[in-house]
Automatic annotation (TrEMBL):
<protein>
    <submittedName>
        <fullName>Small GTP-binding protein</fullName>
    </submittedName>
</protein>
<dbReference type="GO" id="GO:0005525">
    <property type="term" value="F:GTP binding"/>
</dbReference>
<dbReference type="InterPro" id="IPR001806">
    <property type="entry name" value="Small_GTPase"/>
</dbReference>
<dbReference type="InterPro" id="IPR027417">
    <property type="entry name" value="P-loop_NTPase"/>
</dbReference>
<dbReference type="Pfam" id="PF00071">
    <property type="entry name" value="Ras"/>
</dbReference>
<keyword id="KW-0547">Nucleotide-binding</keyword>
<dbReference type="GO" id="GO:0003924">
    <property type="term" value="F:GTPase activity"/>
</dbReference>
<dbReference type="InterPro" id="IPR005225">
    <property type="entry name" value="Small_GTP-bd"/>
</dbReference>
């Protein structure tokens, strides 16, 4: 088990077209009742949550929900900076937008871990879910993303798992070190003699 005294945080951004359910996904993660609303996010909103990994490590996720409308993209992209994980969210009707969103993230944060997230899977039949999962896996490989997951904010399908996967990137981003620095000890300096 890791020492809980040090800071372990990851910045997670949610991107995707307007109306795909990014805000509902965050709300479902916090177990808020599902509301079928069409109010768009017009400014990036943030919140944080602590996720516990299997080894007991606690990771704080700094979650940024960005606006999907084209007219807000210049503002939203400013919030991509320093992101460790990006959820590229799309529903079955907006699958063609995935490549564009992946490219936007990579332009701003080239080393960001990108997860493809199909939302609103509760609106699909079982056959449509299977086909969507297969297309998502193909997109994941083609676009070199880390994961594809079907989710539903209405039923909770895949929501907790998605954020758990994001937290697991902490171990990839912070390799274990054995060297520690003691801040209460004076630094060792080479002594130089004058003349």
């Amino acid at each position: 088990m890791n020492d809980d005294s040090s800071s372990r945080s990851l910045k997670v951004i949610l991107v995707g077209s307007s109306g795909v359910g990014k805000t509902s996904l965050v709300s479902a993660f916090f177990e808020n009742p599902f509301e079928n609303q069409d109010l768009p996010t017009v400014a990036p909103a943030s919140c944080s949550a602590t996720v516990t990994l299997d080894d007991g490590t606690k990771v704080c996720l700094q979650i940024w929900d960005t606006a999907g409308q084209e007219r807000f993209q210049s503002i939203s992209q400013m919030f991509y900076r320093d992101s460790h994980v990006a959820f590229v969210c799309y529903d079955n009707e907006r699958e063609e937008s995935v490549e564009q969103w992946v490219e936007r993230v990579r332009q701003q944060v080239p080393n960001c871990n990108i997860l493809l997230v199909t939302t609103k899977s509760d609106l699909l039949s079982e056959e449509e879910q299977t086909a969507c999962a297969e297309r998502g896996a193909d997109l994941m490989r083609t676009l070199n993303c880390k994961l594809h997951l079907l989710t539903s904010s209405a039923t909770g399908l895949g929501v907790k798992e998605l954020f758990q996967h994001a937290a697991q990137f902490y171990t990839v981003l912070t390799p274990a070190t054995t060297e520690t620095v003691k801040i209460n000890e004076p630094a060792k300096r080479d002594k130089k003699k004058c003349c």
